[in-house]
Amino acid sequence: MKIKYKKKKVKGDEDILLEPEKDRRILSNVPDKEGIRKGIDRRGQKEINCNKNKTTTFIESSKAGIRYITEIDVKVKYKNSKEENEFIVKSNNISTTGILIKLEDKSQLEAINEADYLKLQFRILQGSMPEGYEIKVKIKGKKVRDIVDKDGNILCGIEFLETLSEYSKRKKDKYFLAMSSILLFFISFFIILMRAESIIYFKFNKWMYLYSIIAAIFLLSRYLFGALYKPVPIDSNYTPGVTIIIPCFNEEKWIQRTIIGCINQDYPIDKLEVIVVDDCSNDKSVEKIKETIEELKKEERFEVDKRLKYFVQEKNMGKREALCTGVLNAKHDLVVFVDSDSFLDPFAIINLVQPFKDPKMGGVSGRTDVANTYTNVLTKMQSVRYYIAFRIMKAAEGYFDAVTCLSGPLSCYKKQIVMDNMEAWRNQTFLGQKATFGDDRAMTNFVLNKHRTAYQDTAICSTIVPNKYKVFLKQQMRWKRSWLRESIIAGKFIWKKEPFMSIFFYTGLLVPILAPIVVVYNLIYVPIFHNVFPTTFLVGLLMMALMMSFAQMFFRKSTTWIFGMIFCIFYEAVLLWQMPIAWATFWKSTWGTRMTKSDIEAERKRTMMKNGRQGGINNEV
Questions:
Q1: Which of 123, 307, 363, 482 is most buried (CB neighbours < 10 A)?
Q2: Contacts of 322 (CB under 8 A, 6+ apart)
């Protein structure tokens, strides 16, 4: 009796997202007025028993109880005094501690009831549980309950005798950890040897070999300090007042989920408010916002009517203006910016505020994961890239309390710092053009100039990334332009920071800017004019790709690690060549991925020019 494993099919632009089973309570994570947390779900109790010495036990146990809707084939093997047999059924949902299966008839239920032991066999498919759990499972279990649903289906709950976390560590994670550790060591050692060769041959082309040495040192040091980084632990007694601000423009698809994620936080209700600011959307965003607020107001004991409000701008004024409106109406001393297509983990805010115990801290960035990882190859590449960008690159900056970009999906600031720089931020221009994007990097520069900035890896949100290459490339061009603009600005004061961090910054600015020139020299000039195949250069690129992939394997233990290599190839072949274009056009203010005010104006000018050219042709004819 064989199990058939089928991947979830995607229709058109549809994204594959995790599907947690909805709790009967909308605000299932919000503590009572007295600050009392909810009782532990029985599915999470086992996780508590396995983690008695951890300060994050409550969080881990709560997450262990989350059930994910998934329909997979499950082979049930059983043995009793009469027989030993097996049958295949479908799952209804799964958590890390158990699974709910749908039985075909009462005889299967009777067999389970009479069984001396149960053994389950199934595969956790990509996208059905959080990243890192995808594995083929053969696990023992015991029946805990059975019910008949409204459609007459017999549902049977099976508790695993060990959690999937334990099972994964025993069957997969330890091998991933060992293999990635060994490979990362040898890759690092190999890169050092290659750069030693660069020193030997330095006299033949000092500038190119100098670049390769600097690039290698920069790369290895980032991974080193990223590995040394540790997040600030939770102090449950430290809960400063927080206002979450959600700027929204044409986000009717995701805005409801974003709002619920922000208000459904394990945080004292008298210290958390949420403000939604719609920037004159021309879709149904406002309707969705109103509908969501009315639904949440039914949860009277959580005082949602006092803690959740919205504003609608009279005209489209841009994301910065929407954020400013929120800040001006915020009542708490800390303000959190959350993008309208980003979804907060229920414990994101309690983690995000912890670095502010340092009075010199001005802003903190949380970690952003990809919500639609398993949609296609593009989203899988972005998932690896996001994780490495945050867990390695941003963590390395966080090691020195000098994060250069407090990312838009989830970041927190002292309100007074935002107020002090609000006018300069909202009216920022560069080379005569109004800055309409890169708001997160721009505000980070204002904060970093006089204060510390941190990264908190345990404050997690997930965001929707582009699943089409055209949209993705436009997004990347926008990001490169804002990176160039804000890096030039940051370069004026970053030298005042910790010396290691300053060297990091200027090296990180130099390496990508010069990269296109270096690639052209090594892959085109050298082979054509010197008749030398660029073996060393290509091997160096391969080592960079492998390091990214195996770092993903080491930290996340996810099967997506291979897409780190694919992303590096895609970067060298496509994204790298956006940099020269960004050099020449980084003054542009259009988004490219949505019709903002600047995009509408640019489109109007293009149309006028096109009509003018067409008119000239007609006149000539």
A1: 363
A2: 247, 248, 249, 277, 278, 279, 313
